[in-house]
Write a structure and sequence with these properties.
- The chain is an alpha/beta fold and 252 residues long.
- Helix 3 links the parallel strand 3 and strand 4.
- Helix 1 crosses helix 9, helix 2 runs parallel beside helix 3 and helix 4 crosses helix 5.
């Protein structure tokens, strides 16, 4: 099992990612000897390095578990390119992949709880911004919009969504929409799995948008190491280990 993360320069984010994988390995009943880890950006080993090392250690079959939300550039471009680079060095690899996560009920439940917990401490009339990392993929953006609609239907409060990067609606535009609707208290919920520099900069970014407006806001923690998410990933890993539900196949 090769667990693949995004990678971050934020030490706390890396620590939490590794703890999460530890939790999944334990819950799924995997042996640490049958588990590897890699990243698509910043941290080492990268996916190519991990696959080459596994091949040279005699591993013949690998199942990749990308801990990403939604299928965008990492799944469609970065992982296939990483596999191709590895195969140039060690020959054809037998790799299957789990699909990315994104709209599973457990993820939505955690996001709803994050939003409601903070909204309950704010004055009546609070609004919610659900914020994603962002990408340039229209399909992934549609999937995120559907997730936002599901979360909004359970909130009993205005909810809009935006992105920290990419081509979708910017965070600031989502905040502006709540302002126009009359919301003077705002909950910002990152629909991101682990902390990174983007989430660490969220309060400052919201503050810059707020300027002189008489608005209060609070930023929730990313989805993180919630036991429901550990159970979600562990179940997918167990099925893959048993030869079921390998998802998107070879990415070829």
């Amino acid at each position: 099992m090769l667990f693949v993360g995004h990678g971050t320069r934020l030490e706390r984010g890396m620590h939490l990612w590794h703890q999460f994988v530890d939790d999944v390995v334990k819950r799924a009943g995997l042996s640490e000897h049958g588990v590897a880890r890699a990243f698509v950006e910043i941290d080492r080993p990268d996916v190519t390095e991990a696959l080459v090392a596994l091949s040279r250690a005699g591993v013949r079959r690998v199942h990749g578990v990308p801990l990403f939300l939604f299928s965008a550039g990492h799944m469609q471009v970065d992982l296939p390119e990483a596999v191709a680079r590895a195969e140039e060095r060690v020959g054809r690899l037998d790799i299957t992949w789990s699909p990315p996560f994104g709209d599973e009920p457990a993820l939505i439940d955690v996001a709803v709880d994050r939003a409601k917990e903070i909204a309950a401490r704010m004055p009546e009339g609070a609004g919610v911004v659900l914020v994603g990392r962002g990408n340039r993929d229209e399909g992934a953006q549609r999937a995120f919009a559907e997730v936002a609609a599901k979360i909004g239907s359970r909130m009993g409060a205005p909810l809009v969504h935006g992105y920290l990067a990419g081509t979708g609606r910017k965070l600031e535009d989502a905040l502006e929409e709540l302002w126009r609707r009359g919301c003077r208290h705002i909950v910002v919920v990152p629909y991101l799995w682990f902390p990174g520099l983007l989430t660490e900069g969220l309060p400052e970014r919201v503050n810059r948008w707020r300027g002189a407006r008489d608005i209060s806001f609070q930023v929730a923690e990313p989805l993180g190491r919630d036991p429901r998410l550990v159970a979600l990933v562990a179940e997918r890993v167990r099925r893959a280990a048993d030869g079921h539900d390998v998802g998107v196949g070879t990415l070829a």
